[in-house]
Amino acid sequence: GVTEVLAHRSDNLRDKFMEVPCSEDYDSHRRFAGCTPRKCGRGVTDAVITREEAERIRRIAERGLSLGGSDGGASILDLHSGALSLGKHFVNLYRYFGDKIRDIFTEEDFALYRDVRQRIQQRIAQVFGISSSAMYLTKPTFFSRMNSTGAKTTHDEYWHPHVDKVTYGSFDYTSLLYLSDYSEDFGGGRFVFMDADSNKTVEPRAGRVSFFTSGSENLHRVEKVQWGTRFAITISFTCDPEHGIGDPLL
């Protein structure tokens, strides 16, 4: 069907927000006052993370992913759990490489990662009218590197439509920080919200944050990357403290 572009790569958006009715997904989970979505929707901002910060974050992803990488077109690096794509499998980065990790990452890298995560959390809280302190980082929160290599396992098939709350349960708010530019660094790979009447796309741009409530009101997919390499980081939040995780530590 019809496709509408919510955010072009060339746009420099202070804040763009589109409210949509909440799905019933939240009803089958415990509700947390002051956090569980009552207002649902999706937003895009280029005003929270600078381009230069996005480039520094991308270099963290590049260094980490240089240690491994999937045989297929989608590789992940999770600094929290240590999960790293390696061939057709995953290894634990921290166990696999041990003390060598300190040659790859620095304390400054992890401080920047934490700072960026906090700013995104604060912006989501502000837009949805909830308390930032009532939100908790949750898993999986991870870097992704996508290219046009054919899928070798189901983990490489990132393009299927899905609902985060259904897939992960703990998710209440999802965010993506893009670390490369659509049509300059890669082709395809746009983010697509799949609505009944039309698709709404977000064109990635380094430093752009796309965020949304995680229920069925935001069914989405990523287009297949046609050429080049697309870097992003998915940062997920829950209202349930039992599903909270800490920031990664070196």
UniProtKB/TrEMBL annotation:
Keywords: Dioxygenase, Iron, Metal-binding, Oxidoreductase
InterPro entries, per database record: OGFOD3 (IPR039210), Oxoglu/Fe-dep_dioxygenase_dom (IPR005123), Pro_4_hyd_alph (IPR006620), Pro_4_hyd_alph_FE2OG_OXY (IPR044862)
UniProt key word Iron: yes
A GO CC term attached to the entry: membrane
Claim: Ligase is one of the keywords in the record: no
Cofactor: L-ascorbate
Entries under SMART domains matching the protein: P4Hc (SM00702)
Gene Ontology MF terms in the entry: dioxygenase activity; iron ion binding; L-ascorbic acid binding; oxidoreductase activity, acting on paired donors, with incorporation or reduction of molecular oxygen
Occurrences of domain Fe2OG dioxygenase (ranges): 139-241
UniProt protein name: OGFD3 protein
Name of encoding gene: Ogfod3
